[in-house]
Give the backbone structure.
Amino acid sequence: MPTGWMWDATTTLEALGAADVALWLWEPENDRLRLTGATRALGLGPLSPDCSSAALRALSLPQDRAFAEDILRIREPGAEVAVRLRMRAGGVCIWRGVWLEDGCRAAGVVALESRFAASDQDGLTGLLDRGGFLAGARERLQAAGRHELIVADLDRLRRLNEALGHERADLVLAALGSRLAAAFPAGALLGRIGEDEFAALAPVEVSPGPDALRRALEQPLRVAGFDIHPTLSIGAVEASGGLDAPEAAELLRRAELAVESAKSHGRGGAAAYGRTLETDGLSRLALEGDLRGAMARGELAPYYQPIVRLSTGALSGFEALVRWRHPRRGLLTPEQFLPLLDEMGLMRELGAMMMREAARQLSQWRLRHRAAGELSVAVNLSTGEIDRPDLVADVARIRQETGLPPGALKLEVTESDVMRDPDRAAVILEDLRAAGAGLALDDFGTGFSSLSYLTRLPFDTLKIDRYFVRTMATNTGSAKIVSSVVKLGQDLSLEVVAEGVENAGMARQLLALGCDYGQGFGYAPALSAQEAEVYLNESYVDGAAPVKARGSRG
């Protein structure tokens, strides 16, 4: 190279074009963004050579406009800009730069995301991956002060993948990543640390906290014609930074323990880390060992939650819910052991047992109590159980053995099981109906399905997910969903059952909407067979099942 050779403008532009890179300069006082380089290849052609801030916002995708604002926001001299922005006319671009010393301008480069070899970045969301997040957390925890780490886990990602397919489910995860970035202040450390798990680390004084994060992430969204209502289990932990700060991996482990604790309370739970969670984590291994022989020992058994006609208070039937009568730990709820049972591949065996035992119990009640002749019992089919080869034969054999009339044994099917292969599901459901089973679509309203299939599948009952029932008094979106499902059931001549009825106020609100039946702690929790029989007797003697005036569980 000749001595004294210097880059000229033409050579610079040629080099930028070859590398698919553009330079940008933002002058907020003049409301002018200047661009030069490979703007067309990056989808920035309509903005070049200069444009206003409004033009940048307009060209960015609506869900990413908060990131466009991050480029435009005035900062202190020396502050860095690093933004992942999707444009309408191009791919995903990374904008990097710095605010110059005069504090009036920012300048930097923009290139396709693929040009930045960021090994610590999650390709789907643009957030840090687990390794990158931990590395950043180690650095942040060196600073003095209180820090809050929040971990949010998307509930039922497997069902989402089954219902929508992985590509559409990825759109949901990408949207949640964008919402996470918008919910936290600039400078917060954000990551996607697992397939369905997000994390955020920020100083306590600027962290929005778990409740604000939930409100941001659980807003409904629409993907490929499907209405999605995401719910998340959230765990949080605080720690002091500085010399005595915990190691980043240890802090993340504590937050994830809190998430597991939140999940044990059902969908959409939240929990803070505490020392008691450590012993819970250790006991999980022992629990798994105990579970291997629990079914053979008869420790897993159906418990029965009443289903009540809202208009009269009359007992209509029961839903059979599994409980584990552990010899040392007492009565365990499904959240405490079903995930383990699923990992062990025993869910179908459990489903067959629950169907057999619940039908046998109902048959005994009908023989002993003349008034129980119209009762039914509902049993949940676990994910994938609809494809069990001997399911239809089991239903026919159980009905023959117990003498139950058609419809007395109801099977509750999830939306994801139906939507995975609607045509195949239609054939199986028709066979189950022909074998004498009643059919209910469980957790309806969670939004993983299209409504069109309802008109051609032989359901006789819709069950409204308890989350929407619980929150309908305080959340207008939940109230609209409950009202819509009830109206849909009326239009299709389907019975509608609302889960999660906590008190008389909820029952009255549901009845006013035209809902047929309710179940929940407002009437009774899941009862042992003996307790359920007492409840049955009392409800017929009193003429109605009582509902609590107030309640806190559903």
Notes: The CA atoms of residues 473 and 479 lie 7 Å apart. DSSP finds 18 helices and 22 strands in the chain. The domain at 295-542 is CATH 3.20.20.450 (TIM Barrel). The longest strand covers residues 315-326.
